[in-house]
Structures are given as C-alpha cells and as structure tokens.
Amino acid sequence: MEGVLTYFGPLFSALAGSNITLSFEKSEKPIKIIGTPKVSMKSEDNKYFVPSNWRIIGTMNTFDKTSLYDMSYAFMRRFAFIQIGTPNNIDDNLIKQYTERWRIDLVEEDRKKIVKLWNLINKEYRKIGAAIVKDISKHINSGGALGSSLMMYVFPQFEGLNDDKIKKFLVNIVEFIDSSEELDELKQFASDFFEINIKEFDKTNKEKNESNT
After folding, report:
1. What count of Cα atoms within 13 Å lies in the side-chain half-sphere of residue 41?
2. What whole-number distance in Å separates Cα of residue 171 and Cα of residue 201?
3. Helical ranges in the chain per DSSP H
4. Which strands sit side by side in the sheet containing 20-26, from one edge to the other?
5. Distance between CA 85 and CA 31 in Å, rounded?
6. How much is the pTM?
7. DSSP string, 101-145
8. pLDDT tens digit string along 108-157?
9. 85: left (phi > 0), else alpha (psi -120 to 50), else beta?
C-alpha cells in the first residue's frame, strides 16, 4: 500500500497541473514533472513536461462500478465523467448500421431476432451494450447458434439476478430457439450456472403455454 501511495500522490498532483519532484533520478538529478510548463522553461534530461493537450481516457461499465471499491473523490475530481448509455430505440435499422460498421453480414431473420432479444433483455432484465450484441452477431454469422451465444455472452451478465427472473427469461426466449436440443442445452446451462431447478422452468413454461391457448 505504501508503494501505491508513493506513485498515486504525485499522479494526483500531475493530473491537477502541479509541478512535482519524484524520488527517482536521471543524470544524477531528481526527476521532475512539470504539470504547467511555461515557454521560458529550459528542457533538461530530468524534466518531463505535460503538454496542454495531454489526456487520460478511461472506460468503466456503470454496473461494474457498483461492485468495485469506491474510487476516491480526490481521484474522481481530476476527471470529467461522460455517460454513454445504451440506445433508446433498438430497431432493424440500428442493427443494420452496427453490422455494416462491424462488417458482419446477417440475414434479415437473424437481425430481427437480435432486435427483439436486445429489447427484451434491456427492458426486462439488465441493460447490455453494443459490444455484447457484436459478439452475438459474429457468433451467428460464423455459423453458431443463438442459444450458444446466449450462454457465452448474455447469461454471465445476469449474475446476481434472482431465480424467478432467470426462469422468466428462459421462458421468454423459447421463441428464439430453433430446436428442442438447443433449448435443453440452455436449460442445463442455466441449471448449472445459476443453480436453478429445471423442473420449475418447465412448469412455468407450461403455465405460459396454457395461458396463451
């Protein structure tokens, strides 16, 4: 911890535009970081100037931040936070734009499935961004099944959801699955990953089917 503080203290000062002197040397002189350099300052081997256009850009998922240690206010004060949310209007045109940019060629039927699935997940369960949709699209485009893409990319994002929501999701995605074998594989995966009783899922799915008839 002492070593971490040794580095973060000067970093905080540098991010604030202050001039700092480190405990390291170069050319037998202490290394200095000039946070706000002036034109009149001379260049020396032991001096590093921070230009006015210097930036640090980092990314963090909002949900991840809630499960990590709190960042210090002194650290956050030195950054501007910009929210980049998930799209509000997820439709076929949006998926077309994304897949063209990603150079992924999806057939119309698969695009429509992804549109419905993305809307379902974001509205009813947990918001996922375009990066996961890209992974799903690449997997389907390469010949993979939608069910296996859900297991690889979507289910891990559901960690922490209660059992009822997981079972409800399994019921709601039945329409997206092409075969009973694929559905059985999804059910088994959910049973192992979330420790859900498969019989309870089958009961919920049967009740849904009966209510629709």
Report:
1. 17
2. 7
3. 2-15, 62-67, 73-76, 92-102, 108-124, 130-141, 146-149, 163-172, 180-194, 198-212
4. 20-26, 29-34, 47-49
5. 41
6. 0.70
7. HHT----HHHHHHHHHHHHHHHHHT----HHHHHHHHHHHHTT--
8. 999 999 999 999 999 999 989 999 999 999 999 999 999 999 999 999 99
9. beta
Instruction: Rounding to the nearest 10 degrees, give the CA dihedral for residues 149, 145, 88, 80.
Output: 30
Of residues 20 and 118, more confidently modeled: 118
Is residue 107 scored above 90 in pLDDT?
A: yes
Q: How far apart are CA 104 and CA 14, in angstroms?
A: 43
> Of the candidates 157, 156, 153, 159, which has an alpha carbon nearest to the alpha carbon of residue 137?
153
97-103 long-range CB contacts below 8 Å, 24 or more apart?
A: 98/130, 98/133, 98/134, 98/137, 99/137, 102/134, 102/137, 102/138
Q: Residue 48: left (phi > 0), alpha (psi -120 to 50), or beta?
A: beta
SS3 assignment, position 24? strand
HSE toward the beta carbon, residue 186, CA cutoff 13 A: 28
Residue 32 CA to its chain's centroid (Å): 37
Average pLDDT estimate for 167-175: 89
